[in-house]
């Protein structure tokens, strides 16, 4: 991609109305654009990041047997009357032309349970794992922290259906492992902890995945021995001890909830009378779990964690491009070298953004730091027949031959 | 994918409430599930088809310089007051918790024009081509024809921004070519015609892409010489003659509108005062075009066109799987052959769905015809060490060695 053509030009100043670090960098770097509070457009750079996060999540969901579907956002209100969730604050209400009362999906239990009920009946159909990557709408009174808490946001939601609690428990463990994989792959692994949280009215616990950062809105107590945590809301219930090792030396930390997994037991199955016939011909209730990850929230959290005062430092697995090639000279012969390098990188399958703009060196280097592509290549009069390569997360530029540059890129992205 | 695990089991009977051929087959074959009129869930098989259509569209949009973005569905009503579209019937109205009046996006001119205005200003920023693949909401009084006219549906919408009419015209031609590529690639090429349609209040013409089928709701007059058509609504305006060759021997046909391209001139630019500064420092209005394709509508139209009385015949470029492997025997030694073939096909990178269910041969063969995977492989006691291969669009089964089967599959999908 030629940066001269990229929509849109990177801003020279951070947006005034955004307070959170993630929104400042993401808006200034033209990853996202704010339409109104909690409602953002994903611009080309931002959408590339989201698509990469989406693909990592999809791979990990498929690996644990998830089947991908896509449910609508328009829901009949009547389904929420059945589950007694028709009065919850975050529902957007609307009406069809024929007068039917509708809401926008803030989650999909009310849709997936009747769907599954229509399609399955026997123990042979279980277990069943269905997920989607789809848009949720929540009518938050105060949307805040950039894309961390939106009114409209993409979410992966997985629902599992089981013949009994034992079967559910086994799968719940697999999802925990898959979630750890996802957060490791997107670059949040070291700071993300399985966290005991409230189970609401119908389950003792649920679990969150909390990423430690001063920007977090949640407070968690961390057990450094077990690498797990307890949400503050639950700390009394566990008597200020780690639920696994009983250690009482827990560390209070600020954190962002990047995912949650929830035993639903038979709450929604009972509401819609979702049952199966077991081998003995008996009707039994189906045990459920649900498992969410907000894609924008993951992206925002990655920026909170992986950034310095100059801008974002994208983890390589979700960077919008692999390489940022920058031409720092206006002479035709230097430009020719850069154009050749751009074509050559593309031919070798490298995802490259090429700063061919007529901007000053200062602007170009600041922009590169802001948008945070992992590898920066500079071609200028000074580099002669070589290329300067610098990793975004290092201060040390390397002056390398073109072949060595390609070798270094390949090595970095294959490791 | 093992069919025994696939969500969900194919129905033995077509749905009673669906009238259109596409909805009958798609619902019975478990590609889609109806939540309410005009609102469908995409089940695993259907979502795979949609994703393939999406990817073809994306490739063709990128090939003509399109940059992909993703705009939200929640829109401020105030933007529609500016364009005087706040009273149009199909808008869903809702309100935020803080009392802000919102609508759901039925199209995105009201969002993209202010977005572009915020980000560009100079002739150097033009032309600009932005597209998204996103969900639209239209509060249709009567949703009908399965997924052909929905209340919620995925759409690709491209918007182009130009410094003058000439530049717009050139790009409009490129989009026409890209659209022909898309419809050819998804299997609608032979029956899809560029069609002159009304330009509304602000343009002489727009163009539709109309696919000829008795299931169509539109009437078009076809010029077989030029391979173009005129929508019935425009036939008086062109005096019953082909606008290109003046031929007056036009054939009346039923057709489905699978895409449209529209010169917007400066209608929306004027509304939001979207201008650019030209080389002489003068402010000039930006000329726009918009270009839509409904993904579900393409899928539904493909089914209308590519089906027989037994079911769907997917074009190879958008089939949910490449090969349908069917085991027609319960003996362990035959099952072992089938399992080996399944593993071997997967290892060779073939997208295969394997019917390992304990169903009768009749059910399995009927289901295979219904879901319409292009290549069917049968392993049974009769096939011995060979495999029976049949194309869905042919009556002739072939008895082939395993090597020859792989060769035939490769040849078919590479041609």
From TrEMBL, chains A, B:
**Enzyme class per UniProt:** ligase
Question: What does the UniProt keyword field contain?
Answer: Aminoacyl-tRNA synthetase, ATP-binding, Ligase, Nucleotide-binding, Protein biosynthesis
Which region is the signal sequence?
none
**GO BP annotations listed:** prolyl-tRNA aminoacylation
Among CDD domains, the record links this protein to: ProRS_anticodon_short
One MF annotation (Gene Ontology) recorded for this entry: proline-tRNA ligase activity
Q: Which GO terms describe its cellular component?
A: cytosol
Family matches, as Pfam families:
HGTP_anticodon (PF03129), tRNA-synt_2b (PF00587)
- Its Enzyme Commission number(s) read 6.1.1.15
Quote the Gene3D superfamilies the UniProt record gives. Anticodon-binding domain (3.40.50.800), Bira Bifunctional Protein, Domain 2 (3.30.930.10)
- Catalytic activity of the protein: tRNA(Pro) + L-proline + ATP = L-prolyl-tRNA(Pro) + AMP + diphosphate
Report domain Aminoacyl-transfer RNA synthetases class-II family profile positions: 38-315
Please verify whether the record's keywords include Transcription regulation.
no
Q: What is this protein called?
A: Proline--tRNA ligase
């Amino acid at each position: 991609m030629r940066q001269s053509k990229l929509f849109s030009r990177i801003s020279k100043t951070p947006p005034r109305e955004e307070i959170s670090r993630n929104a400042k960098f993401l808006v200034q770097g033209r990853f996202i654009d704010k339409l109104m509070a909690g409602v953002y457009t994903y611009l080309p750079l931002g959408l590339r990041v989201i698509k990469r996060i989406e693909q990592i999540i999809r791979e990990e969901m498929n690996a644990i047997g998830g089947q991908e579907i896509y449910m609508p956002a328009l829901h009949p209100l009547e389904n929420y009357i059945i589950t007694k969730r028709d009065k919850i604050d975050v529902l957007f209400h609307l009406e069809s032309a024929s007068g039917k009362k509708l809401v926008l999906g803030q989650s999909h239990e009310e849709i997936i349970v009747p769907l599954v009920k229509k399609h399955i009946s026997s123990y042979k159909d279980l277990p069943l794992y269905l997920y989607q990557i789809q848009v949720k709408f929540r009518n938050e009174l105060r949307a805040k922290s950039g894309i961390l808490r939106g009114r409209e946001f993409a979410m992966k939601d997985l629902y599992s259906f089981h013949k009994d609690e034992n079967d559910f428990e086994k799968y719940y463990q697999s999802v925990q492992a898959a979630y750890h994989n996802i957060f490791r792959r997107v670059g949040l692994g070291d700071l993300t902890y399985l966290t005991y949280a409230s189970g609401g009215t119908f389950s003792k616990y649920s679990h969150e995945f909390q990423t430690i950062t001063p920007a977090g809105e949640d407070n968690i107590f961390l057990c450094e021995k077990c690498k797990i945590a307890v949400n503050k809301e639950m700390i009394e219930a566990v008597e200020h001890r780690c639920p696994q090792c009983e250690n009482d030396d827990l560390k209070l930390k600020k954190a962002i909830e990047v995912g949650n997994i929830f035993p639903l037991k038979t709450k929604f199955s009972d509401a819609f009378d979702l049952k199966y016939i077991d081998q003995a011909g008996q009707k039994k209730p189906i045990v459920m779990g649900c498992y969410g990850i907000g894609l924008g929230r993951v992206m925002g959290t990655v920026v909170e964690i992986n950034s310095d005062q100059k801008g974002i430092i994208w983890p390589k697995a979700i960077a919008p491009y692999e390489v940022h090639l920058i031409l720092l000279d206006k002479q035709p012969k230097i430009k020719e070298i850069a154009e050749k390098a751009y074509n050559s990188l593309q031919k070798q399958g490298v995802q490259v953004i090429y700063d061919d703009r007529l901007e000053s060196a200062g602007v170009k280097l600041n922009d590169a730091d802001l948008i945070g592509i992992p590898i920066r290549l500079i071609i200028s009069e000074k580099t002669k027949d070589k290329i300067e390569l610098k990793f975004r997360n290092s201060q040390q530029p390397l002056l390398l031959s073109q072949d060595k540059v390609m070798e270094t890129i390949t090595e970095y992205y294959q490791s």
